Amino acid sequence: MRRVKGRHEKSKETKVGKKLWMRVASFVLLGLLAIPLIILLYMVFSPDYMVLIVKGESMKPTFEIGDVIVLRTYDDGFVEEGQIIAFKQNGFTVTHRVVSTDGMSIKTRGDADEDIDPWELSEFQIRGTYWFKIPCLGYLANFFRSKKGTAIIISAAVIFLIGLMVYEHFNSNKSVKGVRKKNQHNKIAGSANESERRT
Predict the structure, then answer these.
(1) Is the per-residue pLDDT at 48 higher than 80?
(2) Extents of the domains making up the chain
(3) What is the CATH number of domain 49-143?
(4) Would you say 84 and 96 are in contact if contact means Cβ atoms under 8 Å apart?
(5) For an engineered disulfide with 143, which of 109, 149, 171, 179 has Cβ 3.0 to 4.6 Å away?
(6) If DSSP states are collapsed to H, E and C, what string results for the chain?
(7) Handedness of CA 181, 182, 183, 189 (dihedral sign)
């Protein structure tokens, strides 16, 4: 004889299904958030890339203050007019656009500047060539570097861990209660069946 599922069993299966989908969705969301972060961290520590935070307005509107720009490390390649390069000047890293080059010297200018930079560069001064930017991410990076940002990260991690422990505690208690209730129900059902047999 085929056993028909009761309302309680169907409700239990629905809850289990929802929990499973919620876990899958959480893992997918974490993965989508973690992958770009892992790639960016790789670029920060890789010798093949440079990651800079824009702090000036000389390259507006191409770059805004707070943008993060990623550059490929320059390795005796070919520099052409219109290309954005990073170079050291007076102890600072400058990111400007090439306006002219004759193979020996390179002249640059910021997109927001009217005048060409007063210096001439050689290829040996070039540190990297522009690849892509991530708007406004620099504000977040600077915030996390600050004492306040560090305190917030630590506090958020502690709260998350405490919340996870509380959730696991209540979830385990709920499971134990469910097992006890089921055992009690089975005992009652068994006693009833035994009584019917005796009668």
Answers:
(1) yes
(2) 7-45, 49-143, 146-177
(3) 2.10.109.10
(4) yes
(5) 149
(6) CCCCCCHHHHHHHHHHHHHHHHHHHHHHHHHHHHHHHHHHHHHHHCCCEEEEECCCCCCCCCCCCCCEEEEEECCCCCCCCCCEEEEEECCEEEEEEEEEECCCCEEEECCCCCCCCCCCECHHHEEEEEEEEECCHHHHHHHHHCHHHHHHHHHHHHHHHHHHHHHHHHHHHHHHHHHHHHHHHHHHHHHHHHHHHHC
(7) positive
What's the pLDDT score for residue 104?
82
> Phi/psi zone of residue 181: left (φ > 0), alpha (ψ -120 to 50 degrees), beta?
alpha
| Mean pLDDT calculated for residue range 102-130 | 92
Q: Is the dihedral of CA 14, 19, 24, 29 positive or negative?
A: positive
pLDDT band at 4 (very low <50, low <70, confident <90, very high): very low
